[in-house]
Write a structure and sequence with these properties.
alpha+beta; Ubiquitin-like (UB roll); Alpha-Beta Plaits; 2 domains; three-stranded antiparallel beta sheet; 14 strands; 19% helix; globular
Length: 311
């Protein structure tokens, strides 16, 4: 021994709470969402991701806490000793149903959020009673970039704008955006610290925007693509995926995923190569990887094209 001492963190004490009539023990500092998942309770989330700071904006994960006047967001509310929680009460189900109806009536969630359809069936959500976000309801071709029509022809609130095709790496289709703030958090202090995007406007005019609403090539964006990695609705998408979807050739059921190590530097980031028809179509990184926590740099996420190049 060289005489050096290694300081060990004090073990976290266990807290005991009751969820849906079941006693649950979780480490101090755990959230109610983690407690629910520990006992296998499927709690829907849209704005929450393990590698981002909870921002509590989608309100899909709310649960009923005994003694609380309002429903509480499970993703951020810390567990406490003696809590009595209901994750599937009539009040919780009514709240989740309404939130899902509001979201699905203003934004098309069918493309890249298939789990939402299952949630809507579970809670009996009927978005049609608030309007429909179908493309026919909004003439997106007549909406110039930068213009936002907050209300569609049948009264459904939406952000009507065409996809932004201003770079060779990814596409921004904010007509599918639910303002979950995930991309803002990933671009900010949670991952990239670039702060190239933020929420601009208020109310129905609120939208994700670059500084001064400039095009992506003129912004502070470094094209890490971490915003794509966290987007739950397809508002941000690999250009390769967007073009294949437009052509009708995108087929996830025919894709395989291979984990490998990024070849560009010695950091050791894990890459998940999504391969279709013997070609890499996009690259992601596992959320539980100790090095990346799901995040990558521009080379790791978009530098795969050399694999298919013969030059």
């Amino acid at each position: 021994m060289n005489g050096h001492r290694v300081a060990l963190a004090a073990p976290r004490r266990l807290l005991t709470l009751t969820i849906d009539g079941r006693e649950v023990k979780v480490p101090e500092g755990s959230t109610l969402l983690q407690a629910c998942r520990q006992v296998g309770i499927d709690t829907p989330t849209l704005c929450y991701l393990e590698n981002l700071t909870p921002v509590n904006v989608c309100r899909v994960c709310v649960v009923e806490l005994e003694g609380s006047r309002t429903l509480v967001p499970a993703c951020s509310r810390k567990a406490e000793n003696g809590m009595v929680v209901s994750s599937d009460s009539e009040r919780v189900r009514a709240s989740r149903k309404l939130v899902l109806e509001f979201l699905a009536s203003s934004v098309d969630l069918s493309l890249c959020a298939p789990e939402v359809s299952a949630w809507m069936s579970r809670y009996g959500a009927d978005p049609a009673r608030f309007g429909s976000p179908e493309p026919g309801n909004v003439d997106r071709d007549r909406t110039r970039p930068g213009e936002h029509s907050p209300v569609s022809q049948d009264g459904a609130a939406t952000v009507a704008q065409p996809p932004k095709l201003d770079n060779d790496t990814y596409v921004r289709d904010y007509s599918r955006c639910i303002l979950c703030y995930k991309c803002v958090e990933a671009c900010g202090s949670d991952a990239q610290n670039t702060f190239a995007i933020a929420v601009a406007g208020r109310g129905f005019e609120a939208r994700i925007s670059t500084e001064f609403d400039v095009g992506l090539p003129d912004s502070a964006c470094v094209y890490c693509g971490n915003c794509i990695g966290v987007c739950p609705t397809g508002a941000l998408m690999f250009k390769s995926e967007f073009e294949m979807r437009q052509a009708g050739t995108w087929a996830p059921e025919r894709q395989s995923v291979t984990t490998t190590i990024c070849p560009y530097c010695g950091v050791g980031c894990n890459l998940e190569l999504h391969v279709q028809d013997n070609s890499i179509v996009k690259v992601t990184s596992p959320l539980d990887h100790d090095v990346t926590l799901g995040h990558l740099c521009v080379k790791g996420r978009f530098g795969y094209r050399f694999v298919q190049s013969r030059e």
